């Protein structure tokens, strides 16, 4: 498609947008009395209007039923979490039995590492990408130390080539083969939080399995953003937070995927709790743990219903729309944003550089822009003028036009404001 940097053209794209009506399903903050241009759906997605209704339902059931709500609420609480498995399984490409929702992301990755990071004297190393999200770095270091190893030795970071912004799959594969039989676990972010690069999860998972390693993915920036096929890619385990592209609310519950070959096996160690036991006998309070025959075996506590409610509300929107439609709009709106950025860059004499891969297969919703010169000033100008982006040191703003609620006209308006900001 031949793009044009005009309001008329942007409005025409909005008219043709199948998701246009979904914009009004979300609540926008306002700056100067106008809806903001929201680019931080990769950090905290906007609130779906439906969320309040789902939370109110729980509050009302709690008021009128109290403890009876566990079994007699409109959506009973004792198995409330099970309602999220089917819609999530479509979003991440898994079987519903491979999905469970619990805790928060870093907690879940630790719990999954109890099962999938079991180092031995010979096989104890973990491969990850350099400059992974800090929580992942702290998690891996503390796990390695917990098992008595030295992070310097046990954590192998895949490096980017000098002068390049993104990782190359061939370099990742090379590292996997170099570490070989010493590798106990490969655990990486499926989409890099800083650059927005999408990793070739299928290839990396297959290469990891060839050397006998477990392979897991942190899907914080991938779930609800890109097409995933966790089961077919044969991924061992994965986890994600729900408050980024999945619009579930701040700090909200995390999802987990565990491949079905690990279900119903007594030889997989796990940290266990009563919500992981067979539900038929759960309330008989028996002394021995009989695991659920699915990913719910990893559940520990009774579920945080008030946190699951807005997540479930948001998933109803994903159910209506489906990932294919989201991905189609995402590709178009991100390409349009990229076009506008390039136009402005040419007009204002190379003020910035896009460090996200230009190949649509290697990126999702996010474009990371490296600002030359006075980046922070431009960032502040954008914020003052109703454009919410986020700032990452040393000089990067991340722009993620979430397809559910961002419009093409937003992209045009953003371009005009950015141009003013650079000139001023
Ligand atoms: C957002 C994000 C997290 C956040 O972890 P929480 O436990 O939800 O606070 C972790 N890892 C990555 C890669 C992220 O992008």
Task: Throw out a few tags for this protein.
424 residues, globular, seven-stranded mixed β-sheet, alpha/beta, Aspartate Aminotransferase, domain 2, 37% helix, binds pyridoxal-5'-phosphate, Aspartate Aminotransferase, domain 1, 13 helices, single chain, 17 strands, four-stranded antiparallel β-sheet, EC 3.7.1.3
Q: What is this entry, summarized?
A:
This is Kynureninase. The protein has 13 helices and 17 strands.
Report on the structure:
It is a single chain. The chain is of the alpha/beta class. It folds into 2 domains: 7-48 and 322-423, Aspartate Aminotransferase, domain 1; 53-321, Aspartate Aminotransferase, domain 2 (3-Layer(aba) Sandwich), CATH 3.40.640. The protein has 13 helices and 17 strands. The strands form 5 sheets. The chain has a 7-stranded mixed beta sheet, with helices on both faces. A 4-stranded antiparallel beta sheet has the order 13-14-17-16. Strands 1-5 form a two-stranded antiparallel ribbon. β9, α9 (201-210) and β10 (214-218) form a beta-alpha-beta unit. The relative contact order is 0.18. It binds pyridoxal-5'-phosphate (PLP). Pyridoxal-5'-phosphate binds next to α5 and α6. Pyridoxal-5'-phosphate (PLP) binds at residues 104-106, 133, 135-136, 189, 193, 218, 220-221, 241. Its EC number is 3.7.1.3. Belongs to the kynureninase family. Catalyzes the cleavage of L-kynurenine (L-Kyn) and L-3-hydroxykynurenine (L-3OHKyn) into anthranilic acid (AA) and 3-hydroxyanthranilic acid (3-OHAA), respectively. Homodimer.
